[in-house]
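User: My collaborator sent over this chain with a note saying "see what the structure looks like." That's all I know about it. Can you take a look?
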Amino acid sequence: MKLVSVKRKTKSEKRFTEKMGMFTAKVVYVKKRFLNIPFKTLHKYRETYYGKVKDCEDCQITA
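Assistant: Without extra context I'll predict from the sequence alone. Here is the result:
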């Protein structure tokens, strides 16, 4: 049994950018888990409409 593992999870989020406005993007979270309990997000990125992968730092989450 592994004590530390890394898992990916994809979920849809509403995001906002200055150029595109409001849109829904599929965001992938890469999380580190200890005994199957997530405790740290290593990286999060999103896929654009054209298939490019971008970091989530350039757009904000809106609720």
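A starting point for your reply to your collaborator: The mean pLDDT is 83.
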